[in-house]
Every structure is written in structure tokens, then in C-alpha cells.
Amino acid sequence: MNPLLCKGMFCLLSWEADSRGRHGEYTLQPLSLQAEETTELGSKKELKSMPFITYLSGLLTAQMLSDDQLISGVEIRCEEKGRCPSTCHLCRRPGKEQLSPTPVLLEINHVVPLYTLIQDNGTKEAFKSALMSSYWCSGKGDVIDDWCRCDLSAFDASGLPNCSPFPQPVLRLSPTVEPSSTVVSLEWVDVQPAIGTKVSDYILQHKKVDEYTDTDLYTGEFLSFADDLLSGLGTSCVAAGRSHGEVPEVSIYSVIFKCLEPDGLYKFTLYAVDTRGRHSELSTVTLRTACPLVDDNKAEEIADKIYNLYNGYTSGKEQQMAYNTLMEVSASMLFRVQHHYNSHYEKFGDFVWRSEDELGPRKAHLILRRLERVSSHCSSLLRSAYIQSRVETVPYLFCRSEEVRPAGMVWYSILKDTKITCEEKMVSMARNTYGESKGR
Fold this sequence. Notes:
Elements: E1 2-7, E2 10-14, E3 32-38, E4 45-51, H1 52-61, H2 121-136, E5 141-144, E6 147-150, E7 172-173, E8 184-189, E9 199-209, E10 221-224, H3 225-229, E11 238-244, E12 251-257, E13 265-274, E14 283-288, H4 296-310, H5 316-328, H6 331-345, H7 351-359, H8 361-368, H9 376-381, E15 386-401, E16 420-435
Antiparallel strand pairs: 1-2, 3-4, 5-6, 7-8, 8-12, 9-10, 9-13, 11-12, 13-14, 15-16
GO cellular component, one term: endosome
InterPro entries: Annexin-like, ASTN1_2_Fn3, ASTN_2_hairpin, Astrotactin, FN3_dom, FN3_sf, Ig-like_fold
Domain Astrotactin-1/2 Fn3: 167-289
């Protein structure tokens, strides 16, 4: 601290912040004031000192130092590279307020881990170990090669080590295979990180959900991706696949279901199992399959046949023939027959009234109650003016494991290390297109 100007009892004081490479922050050295005090007798002199911050606090307490008026002879400078920071209590005077300078990143030569900037080898290794533990093992274990050795305190209620986070797999519809009335393709990205958790298997569950099924009692069917699907022990209705994403190191697993019921509401769940027996959080997809396939030309032919049987005097043989014909077609086909019948012959009585009149209430009820099985979504589509059928062929990667995992060793086998061979196969998918005019 250098005295710049003194007048009477007061001196103009200033000091300079000492920057010594401490990450760009200023460190203020302790400052003190010294003054000579003369006794009443004038014979003795004593040198007294006080910290400068104490001096300022005394001035503030005595209300001699304020924002608006500084006492004569004292100048306070709290500057940052020539600019007064907004945090400075003593610089908030008219015309003095300026924003602090904004730091500017000048250049990046290369990206390196933070711990490499430390020169001391021992400190560098300790810092590296701490960072690795914090990132991969939640700070509750040590990184050994590519896995986490958990601390004794890092165990869950089941007694399993849980220091390494277990990401949740996200089940989704495959963007390359559009669901049809019987075929659905699902996929998910492998969640095994580079260090820590080792995924042993993925467990899928699927079940049909409707008002007649107690979803809490009926759990559906569970399938092991590694033991059932990749080993080929599953049914021909379910196939496993694997492909790579945009990043080569990322694996995408997929499962295609080929024998689902049309116009059905299905719930699919997925969770991962690691080599220690832990389960990840569930991922769920609920969807309704497309409406059942309908041969619109055949439906129109049946509607004409039923009209001819109902027209005029209907014998017992003709009644039974009409009843058998209507009971043999599917519910969606029956809905389409009703649509064509009413479109062409409603002036002679609609389909429901004529069926009750010709077949009697009991047989008509047995036929008509089947229409209730058609969902409201499909009912609206089946009222379209024209329905056309088409067949698509989509490629699918079908995969099998080259090795058989021993029974009872599921938790200790890493799925990513399993040797898998894949071949491309074609899957035929029939669809209906609905429109108000032909050719749409």
C-alpha cells in the first residue's frame, strides 16, 4: 500500500490486487494502517496498527463512509482491469457503474483429460482415480479395468453391489418396419456402458390386453433374448435381430412378432439383466395392431348373396344358408358385408332389420353381436367407400447365437461378447388401404 497524498489526518490510499496465476482470481494481501499516537504529556509516542478492513468497517459504522458520499481524503478503488465490477459495494456511484469484463476463450490447442494437466504423478493418479470413480461408479467404488469394484457400503436391499449405474433400455417401434395387422417389430439400443455394468440378457414380456382379461392376473409370455430368441428355442412367430446404429460401437437389438391378432391391444415390456443379477427399470410400449385384412370384392359378393336369399319368400334351407354364410366370415368381414348391403339395398330394409325378420331374433342376435368385437377405430375405416389390399415385402435381419450358454450361468455371461451371426430375410406383410375413391 503506497501513500499517494496526505492532507491533515487523511491520506489518499490505493492498493493493487496481486494476481499470481490462481485461475484468474485476484488475491488481496492483508493490508494494515499504522499511525503514531501522542500521549497527553507529549513525551511518549506509540506506534499502533490495525487491519485496513477494520478501518473501513469503523468508518462505515460511524456512517462516515457511504455509497453517496465518501469522506474527504479517502479514495477507495476496487477495480477489475480498469472496470468497476457490479459486485463492488463502494463503486455504485452515478457514472461509475460498468459491467465486469466478459472472459474470452482465445484458442484451444487440443482436448486432454483434466487430470493430465497436473504435473505431480501421485496427485495425477489420485485425481484420475477419483474422476473415474465419480463418472463410472457413482463415487462409491474403484474402476478396475472395465468394471466397478464397489465399496462395502454400496449394496442394495437384495445384497447386490449397485455402485455402477444401470441405464434403462428404451423400447420403441422399429422405424423401418411399419406395424401391420399381425406383424410388429420392436427395437432398443444396447445400454451396456464402456465401464461398469455388464449386460447379460434382455427380458421381453408381451401380452394382449382387452376387457375380458385381468391384466394383473395374466402376466403374458416372457422371452429371454439370449436364451430363447438368439438360441432359436423360441417359436417361429418371434425372431431376434441385431444391427448397428450410426455409431459403429452402438448395437441395436430388435425383435419381430409375426403372429399377433389383428385389431388387438398389446403391451410390450423390456428390462435388462446384468452379470450380477440386477434388473434395470422397465420400458413399456403399448400399441394396437392394424385392422384385420378384408377382401372387399368378396364382401360385396356376400352382400349380394344375402340379399338374394332374403328377397321374396325365404325357405328354411335358404335361411340356414344365410345364417351359415354370415357366421363363417370374420367380424370385420361381417361389418363390411353389412356396409355393402346397406349401401345397395337399404331401401328394402337395412341389414339388421332384415336379418331379424328373416332369421328370427335368436339367430340374428348370434350374428349381430359379433360386430361388437370390431373396435371403433376399425369400424370407422371399414365404412370407407373403397378398400384395397396390398402385400409388402420388407427386409429383416435374422440373428442366431453361435454358442450355447450353459444352464445356470446366465448372470455371468456378457451378451455383447456372444458370437452372433445374422442373415437378411424377407418378411411379407399384407395391408389394407382405405379411401373414398379407387386408386387411393
